């Protein structure tokens, strides 16, 4: 079966059962995304709902999935209504929940339910996990090439890590491509003279952000959520892996990771990206409050290029850091 999903979740039991998993966000952001947003609006989705939700709706509507796995806790408050409208169009839906209280026993039960539903044992799941962890280990190395040597650019880092949510729908091909990329990247010259930035929050809807930052003399050497999608902690146990994964829980779990990485990567400042009409904008209050490096809050709405106002704000932010 081909199973689309709304955000990163434990894919190991599904792969162990021999099915294919596809991250709907990745199809949206690499497709004709403006038209996908407009299509959902034509179907009645309101203007003041996040573009990612509208994109996911249209992607699912157009594609041929056997099931959509909706992550109904730990991601997006709009997912419930998204799933109801998809079900109304005849799409079959499955559900997964990350416990908001970060309770390990509840998380373990959710993973067991997945295994029961797909008819696989824990040892089947762990076999796939070990295969994926071999790739994740290479992604940790790729991330190090970004922040330690600058041989992998912020955009390349973003793309490889964000695609680790579903490994492009084919983890064998993803690994072969990654091996080739790493071989080439290691031959490059070191580049670490620029301003060192972190990118926090959900992946940007802009398609030229990284290039623009580079052109202004800054390099992103930490992609917070994208790195989380690549499960960087390499925990031996499947429950631990998804318990240490920060994205589905409160902003406090994220803050602990962000603070450690700001220090480890010696960042000059961070861009805290927020999506228009996203409830996660509220988390930004605490991000600004508890980080002790300069923070630029950048808001994106529609897919496409950075608009003039955002470019100007980035430019002023970078000038301020340089001055400091
Ligand atoms: S950006 Fe926010 S509102 Fe949009 S899909 Fe993600 S969590 Fe939901």
Summarize the structure in words.
The chain has 324 residues and is of the alpha/beta class. It folds into 2 domains: 2-122, Rossmann fold, CATH 3.40.50.11890; 151-323, Rossmann fold. The chain has helices at residues 12-16, 24-30, 33-42, 51-62, 79-88, 104-118, 122-149, 154-162, 171-186, 209-215, 224-229, 238-244, 251-264, 283-290, 308-323; strands at residues 2-5, 20-23, 67-73, 93-97, 195-200, 218-223, 269-275, 295-300. Strand 1 (2-5), helix 1 and strand 2 form a beta-alpha-beta unit. The chain binds iron/sulfur cluster. Iron/sulfur cluster binds at residues 50, 52-53, 75-76, 78, 202, 275, 278, 280. The site of iron/sulfur cluster has 10 residues, from helix 4.
Give the count of structural domains.
2
- Which blocks of ≥5 consecutive residues have pLDDT under 50? none
Fraction in beta strands: 5-15%
- Main sheet makeup: 4 strands, parallel
Number of helices: 15
Keyword list:
single chain; 324 residues; alpha/beta; Rossmann fold; 2 domains; 4-stranded parallel β-sheet; 8 strands; 14% strand
């Amino acid at each position: 079966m081909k199973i689309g999903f709304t955000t990163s979740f434990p894919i190991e039991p599904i792969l162990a059962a021999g099915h294919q998993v596809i991250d709907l966000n990745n199809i949206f952001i690499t497709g004709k995304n403006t038209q996908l947003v407009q299509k959902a609006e034509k179907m009645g989705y309101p203007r003041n709902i996040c573009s990612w939700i509208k994109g996911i709706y249209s992607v699912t509507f157009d594609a041929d999935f056997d099931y959509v796995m909706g992550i109904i806790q730990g991601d997006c408050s709009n997912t419930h209504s998204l799933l109801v409208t998809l079900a109304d169009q005849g799409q079959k839906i499955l559900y997964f929940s990350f416990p908001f209280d970060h309770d390990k026993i509840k998380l373990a039960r959710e993973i067991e339910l997945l295994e029961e539903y797909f008819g696989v044992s824990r040892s089947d799941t762990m076999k796939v996990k070990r295969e994926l962890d071999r790739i994740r280990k290479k992604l940790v190395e790729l991330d190090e090439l970004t922040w330690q040597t600058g041989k992998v650019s912020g955009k390349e880092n973003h793309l490889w890590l964000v695609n680790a949510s579903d490994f492009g729908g084919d983890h064998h091909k993803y690994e072969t491509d990654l091996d080739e990329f790493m071989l080439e990247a290691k031959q490059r010259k070191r580049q670490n003279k620029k301003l060192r930035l972190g990118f926090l929050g959900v992946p940007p809807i802009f398609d030229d952000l990284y290039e623009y930052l580079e052109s202004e003399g800054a390099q992103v050497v930490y992609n917070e959520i994208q790195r989380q999608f690549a499960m960087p902690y390499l925990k031996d146990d499947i429950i631990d892996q998804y318990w240490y994964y920060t994205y589905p829980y409160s902003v406090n779990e994220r803050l602990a990771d962000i603070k450690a990485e700001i220090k480890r990567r010696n960042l000059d400042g961070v861009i805290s990206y927020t999506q228009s009409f996203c409830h996660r904008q509220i988390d930004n209050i605490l991000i600004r409050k508890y980080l002790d490096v300069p923070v630029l809050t950048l808001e994106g709405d529609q897919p496409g290029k950075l608009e003039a106002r955002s470019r100007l704000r980035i430019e002023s932010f970078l000038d301020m850091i340089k001055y400091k």
